[in-house]
Amino acid sequence: MDILRNIFGTLTSGVIRLLVSVGILAAAYFFIVKPVLKTTSDAIKTTNHSFEKSFGENGLGDLHKTFEDVNRQVEREIKRSFHTAKREGNPKRLVRCIKHSHGDVQRIQHCTVKF
After folding, report:
1. Do 111 and 94 contact (CB within 8 A), yes or no?
2. Which terminus of the chain is more solvent-facing, meaning fewer CB atoms within 10 Å of its CB: N or C?
3. What is the pTM of this model?
4. What per-residue confidence (pLDDT) applies to 90?
5. Distance of CA 23 to CAs 7, 40, 99, Å?
6. Distances from the Cα of 115 to the Cαs of 95, 103, 105, 107, in angstroms?
7. What is the distance between the alpha carbons of residues 93 and 101, in angstroms, rounded to a whole number?
8. Do residues 89 and 112 touch, judged by C-beta distance below 8 A?
9. Distances from the Cα of 89 to the Cαs of 9, 10, 55, 107, in angstroms?
């Protein structure tokens, strides 16, 4: 009977220790970790909101739209210039001439006049 008491006593004390440890860890989570995570999350949301608001007030919020508009305009002008060049000159020969000019401005001007 003493053997059973020792086994159950040891088993019971082990379970109690385990429950106390789990309780301490749970309390630490609920009273320390969880509030810190919530505070950090709120601070990040507030900071992001402030940045978005400041960019919107300064007119920087529309930069993406402005870049898209500029890209469309540049693309349109390039297509128009190549269309004009095909009617009035030879764009392939112009590009080849510019490549062979090796950055010499006078040669590039000569190529644009010629082709």
Report:
1. yes
2. N
3. 0.39
4. 67
5. 24, 25, 76
6. 9, 17, 15, 12
7. 12
8. no
9. 101, 99, 47, 17
